[in-house]
Amino acid sequence: MAGATALAFEYDVPAMNALGPSPTRIRVSNDFTHVGSGYVLVGAAALTYAIGRLEHKEGPREAGMLSLEALADATLVVESLKLATNRQRPFVAPGTGKFWPDDSEIYTYNGSFPSGHAAATWAVARVMVEETPGHPWLHVLLYGIASGVSIARVTGQDHFPSDALVGSVIGYTIGGYVYHHHSQFYVPKARFITLAPLYNPVTAAYGVTLSLHP
User: Fold this and answer.
1) Are 12 and 169 contacting, i.e. CB atoms less than 8 angstroms apart?
2) Are 70 and 127 in contact, with CB atoms under 8 Å apart?
3) How many CA atoms lie within 13 Å of 111's alpha carbon, on the beta-carbon side?
4) Is 151 exposed, middle or buried (0-12, 13-18, 19+ CB in 10 A)?
5) Which of 11, 48, 106, 126 is most exposed by smallest CB count within 10 Å?
6) Domains of the chain
7) pLDDT tens profile 97-155
């Protein structure tokens, strides 16, 4: 992740320059990214929760509730990073995405790094995927939408590639964390390799045990 982010930072400006100006592409991209807006994601999660409550189905109810939690967590992390990094957006001249262009005199929650749309969409998508096992086509659709939103934030000249990349990883990670820690349906998988410290009080010897679970 660190290597990919560093590489993205290196090619952020050349990538945006390579896209070039295209009013049609920018308009279409920005229209599509409404899918990743807060009001759409909150509405979808709330609707899922309401359906579960009305039909007395725990699966949809939990999926909606955890999606809202993941969305809130992702927003908190992203807004904190925006405040800490204060990066200029691609459409701000000279388009180099400078961090702290005004030193520390101005703080903003509207910075470019990372992408809030990408983080929010991936967080909700991850929860929904985890909550719906056995539906691969739905998973492809959800992750496809999340990928599309991340890409559209770049092609719409709202974010640099590194902004979208980091935002996507943050959202995906938070979605998984929320599901693994708060879902009643989550079943921990056995680790393939387990390392554990070992101490023998008789011989006062220390060591490490290695367990394989094929």
Assistant:
1) no
2) yes
3) 24
4) middle
5) 106
6) 2-189 (1.20.144)
7) 888 877 655 666 788 899 999 999 999 999 999 999 999 999 999 999 999 999 999 99
| CA–CA distance, 159 with 37 (Å, rounded to integer) | 15
Distance CA(109)–CA(99), nearest Å, equals 13
Residue 58 CB neighbour total at 10 angstroms: 11
The tokens for 112 are 């470019």
Q: Which helix (H) or strand (E) holds 40?
A: helix 38-54
User: pTM for the complete prediction?
Assistant: 0.84
Cβ count within 10 A of residue 30:
15
Token representation of residue 84: 């800490």
Identity of the amino acid at 101 = P
Task: Count other C-beta atoms under 10 Å from residue 177's C-beta.
Answer: 15
Q: Is 143 in contact with 171 (CB distance < 8 Å)?
A: no
Give the span between the Cα atoms of 212 and 117, in whole angstroms: 40
Using the structure block, give the residue that is written with the tokens 């709202």.
158
Token look-up 């964390």 returns 177
**Local structure of residue 114 (DSSP, 8 states):** S
Token readout for 187 is: 């079943």
The pLDDT of residue 122 is: 97
